[in-house]
Every structure is written in structure tokens, then in C-alpha cells.
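Bump. Still looking for Response regulator C-alpha cells.
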Amino acid sequence: MAKKVLLAEDEEVLRMLVVDTLEDEGYLIDEASDGEEALQLILENNYDLIILDYMMPVYTGLEIIEKVRQLPDKKHVKMMMLSAKSQKTDQETVLEAGANYFMSKPFSPLELVNKIEEILSEN
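Sorry for the wait, here they are.
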């Protein structure tokens, strides 16, 4: 059965690249272009993985992680943060908030697919 992934990324070109790459790998993808849209989709659907951009309009990826981790029926969903903010302190903040993984931009599509497969194979 195909894994369902939410991609929340406000940069349209990057969002399209990631969606195309993941669809080619057989994933079912929902897209959000800002934090508010992402949060609404999270509340309405069940995802195997949520991929969030750090800097988005309305809610940041960090704010979404914190909100999702407070929802009893969603708090165990796997979450990955994508960010150009790649300082060690940024990574630590994201992981402490509850993300399962932090990936710095820029990244290769293959690197992303490999990391997603690794995250989804963990129990």
C-alpha cells in the first residue's frame, strides 16, 4: 500500500520538484503552500510522514511540529524538517520540538527519497 505524505513548502518550484520525485517513487502526496493549509490537512487526514519547510507563512514548520505533537491521535506521526537554516542550534531546536529528522537545503531528490525510505522503515 502506498505511503501517504504531506509536503508543506512555500517555495513552488521546490514543492513541484519534491512532489514529482516522490510520486515517481509511488508515494501519495498532499501539498500545502503555507503553515495554515498544512495544519488543516494534518487535522483532516492521516499521514505516514509530514515534510515541513522551516520558514513558511502563517505557521512555521517548527510551530506545526509543536502543535501536532500535542494532538493525541497525531503525536506519533513521523515528521521531517527541510530548511536552509542549517546551524547546529536550528537542528537541535527542530529535533527537540519533535521532528524525526532535519534535512538542510539544498538537497538532492535522491538524498530525500533515501531519507524518507529510512524514516518510514523505522518503527
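The CA atoms of residues 85 and 104 lie 7 Å apart.

Edit: fixed formatting.
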